[in-house]
Each structure stands twice: as C-alpha cells, then as structure tokens.
What we know:
By secondary structure, this protein is mostly helical.
Amino acid sequence: MKKYVMPIIMLVVFETVAITLWLTKNNLFYLFNFSYIGLSISLGVFLYIKKYKYARRIVQLLVGLYMLVYLGLICNENMQIEGFWYYLFTGVFEAATIHYAVAKIFGPLIFGRGWCGYACWTAMVLDFLPYKVPKEPRRKIGWIRYITFAASLIFVAALFLAHVGSLERIMFWAFIIGNILYYTTGIILAFSFKDNRAFCKYICPITVFLKPMSYFSLIRLKCDKEKCISCGKCKRVCPMNVDVTDNSRKRKNGTECILCMECVKNCPKDAL
Ligand code: SF4
Ligand code: SF4
Ligand code: SF4
C-alpha cells in the first residue's frame, strides 16, 4: 500500500481545497471543479505507479482539455494570466484568482511545477511535438518571460484605467487570441530551438510566479548518492535541463523541474 501514498495525498489535498471552497463560497462548482482535477491527477499518479507509459499524457489531456474547452471556451472563464489580473483588479476572489492561488502561487510550495508537467493546456499540445529532449544547449534568454509578464499586467491595467466597457467580453477574446499566440509561438520556438519546452523556458509569463515558489517545493526529486554511478542519463533525458543529481535546492535549473519523471524512468540504478 505504501507506494499508493502519493495519489492518496494528491486526492486529499485537492478534496480539501474542493470542500473548503464549496463551503466558504457556497458554490457547488468548486466541489466539482477541484474534485475532477484531483481525481485526474491521482489517476495519473496511480497509472504511473502501475508503469503505464502514457500516464502523464492522460492527465494532461484530462485536465488541459477540461480547462481550455469547458472552463475557457464554454464557461467563458479567462484562466490565462490576463484573467488573473482582471479578477484581481475587480477584487473578486473567483475563477482565475482561485486557480492561480491553488495551481500557480501557493500550490507550488507543495507540488512544485506539477502544473507544468500535468495540467497546462499549452504544454499539453507542445509535448506532442518531436523534440521531447532538447537537441540544443539552453539559451540565456529567460528574461523574455518578464517582458510578457509585464505586458499582460499593463494590458489589463490600461483597460481599467481607460474605463473600457464590456470587459468580460474583452477578456473572453483575450483568452482566445492569447491562446492562439501561445500555441503559435510555442510551436515555432519548438521547431526553431529543437526543444518542445522552449516556450516554457523563455517566454511563459506564469513562470514568474512558478519559479520562486517551486524553489521551496515540498515534493521534489532527490538522488541517492549511494546508488548513483554518475552516468549522466538523467540529465540527458530531462526536457528542462535540470541537474537532478544535485540534492541542494540551488541545483542547476532546479526551479524548472516539471516532475515529468523521465529521469526516474531512465535511471539505470533506481537512484532517483
Ligand atoms: S511554463 Fe507556462 S506554458 Fe509551460 S507548462 Fe508551465 S504554465 Fe504551461
Ligand atoms: S541516471 Fe541515475 S545513476 Fe545515472 S547519473 Fe542520474 S541518478 Fe545517477
Ligand atoms: S526529467 Fe526529472 S528533473 Fe527533469 S523535469 Fe522531469 S522530473 Fe524534473
């Protein structure tokens, strides 16, 4: 039973959030929403334990499509970063603000960048591209993420300052156009840099929240130095260029780990 502790912990964490929000906000949607996400993630972890090859991809599709199609397109909830700023400025702790608080700001203190590995609908598509392992060295252009982050904030702040009407409608179209831009840029970068996750490494504004919070993550991979033979395979298969053999929090690209488990699956000595 011990090996099933992790899916049970994930389920308990998400059910706690689901029930707390349902009761405090008096809204049944939160019970459904977070229970669905928690069940999907727990199912993925369970399938991974059972050594099912596509466990992570199944979670990505279950959660990513739910958020993109159901919440975004059908319910008109902008879960992009613009939606977060929008709800923050209106002072409403709903939809995108709750989503960001749980998945991208406070959640990473527990599960690091699990969002990026298992739930993001942008990466859900990018991970289908051919460059699962980066073919070129990492570039020093991560500063672009601060520009996209600032641009999203300035865009929404300008709408408020200019007292633009029909903000809900604008946010819906911002969601559509934003996603088209993300996918287009992500796919072009993946092929140009021969790296599926180039968008995540250099452009994505959400990493401005994710990286510092995941530095303190409770759930993180560790290397058993007694077993490790320093073969370097874990680093060669890592999509995010993490030096997972270094157990310190300052490990190279440590805040980039998306918990995809490729290093664990490929370690010949079960050292991770
Ligand atoms: S870095 Fe951004 S685009 Fe990439 S998986 Fe994380 S949230 Fe999604
Ligand atoms: S793959 Fe395993 S044995 Fe090889 S360096 Fe990484 S942790 Fe050590
Ligand atoms: S391969 Fe390992 S170190 Fe690299 S992102 Fe995946 S889980 Fe993290």
